[in-house]
Amino acid sequence: MKKALALILLLVALVLIAPVVWHAVRGPQPSEPIRHLPWQIEPLEGGASRVFGLALGGGATLGDARALWGPEMQLAVVAAPGESGALEAYFENLTAGVVTGRMVLAADLPARQVQRLRERAVKTEFMDSTTRRFTLHPEDVEAALRAPLLGISFVPSAQLDEAVVLQRFGEPAERIRTSEQVEHFLYPGKGLALTLDAKGREVLQYVAPARFERLSAPLHRSAGDPAPGGAASR
After folding, report:
1. Residue 97 in contact with residue 39, Cβ under 8 Å?
2. pLDDT tens by residue, the chain, 234 residues
3. Domain ranges of the chain
4. Is residue 89 a contact partner of residue 148, using CB atoms and an 8 Å limit?
5. Counting Cβ atoms within 10 Å, is residue 53 exposed (0-12), middle (13-18) or buried (19+)?
6. Which of 8, 15, 24, 207 has a CA between 20 and 30 Å from the CA of residue 143?
7. Sheet containing 49-51: order of strands
8. Any idea what DSSP says for residue 28?
9. Residue pair 71/123 in contact by the 8 Å Cβ criterion
10. Are 72 and 91 in contact (CB under 8 A)?
11. CB count in 10 Å sphere of residue 110
12. How many angstroms separate the CA atoms of 147 and 64, rounded?
């Protein structure tokens, strides 16, 4: 009788400790890798790249961005004075991996198509004292979503500094200072121009590496150095 009782107690103990032993043998399970972080830039064939899960220069559209990042995406034509404007999509508050911020996506559309969207807009409002935003007509939204992506701008909520930039993105190919408080870190192989502002918000601008001159040329002109690839301005 005592032997039977001891055997029962032993079996109960084994049942209770088995999960603990199994967990110890398996060890800690790897967590799901974090994706779509701002520094996770994947070069693609043909001078394209993938960032935030979207292929720049690789066929991604505004519709792909909405499918990936959600229906909160807003569409509008944004125009500065004297300009026809550009079709843009934007997320006021987006979490890329674990980094929150504001994302603006620029579409690659001919000027005549942008002008048509602007003329049919159902609402016009000022974003600041001069730049205007034209809200698309509902009948134009579907066509706008088929527009290919030209570039992405991301404004992180958290303040960055030089140490964080170098740690996450690596050493830039070039650094251009356009004012006492503003410096630009250029990564042509990644299609990234990162603006570090000591007194304002940082801005990360992405294009396909093959089209990097769209970002670098204006910065060289602003710094008085029209020749790309020259010595870094400090």
Report:
1. no
2. 544 444 444 444 444 444 443 343 344 555 678 999 999 999 999 999 999 999 999 999 999 999 999 999 999 999 988 888 999 999 999 999 999 999 999 999 999 999 999 999 999 999 877 899 999 999 999 999 999 999 999 999 998 999 999 999 999 999 999 999 999 999 999 999 999 998 889 999 999 999 999 999 999 988 876 555 443 443
3. 42-150, 159-225
4. no
5. middle
6. 207
7. 42-43, 49-51, 54-56
8. P
9. no
10. yes
11. 8
12. 10
pTM above 0.85, yes or no: no
User: Residue 151 is which amino acid?
Assistant: G
Residue with tokens 């007194």: 199
Cα–Cα dist 192/203, whole Å: 10
Closest CA to 44 of 36, 53, 35: 53
Separation of alpha carbons 73 and 90, rounded Å: 6
* Residue 229 to residue 97: CA distance in whole angstroms: 32
Counting runs of H as helices and runs of E as strands, what totals does the chain give? 6, 13
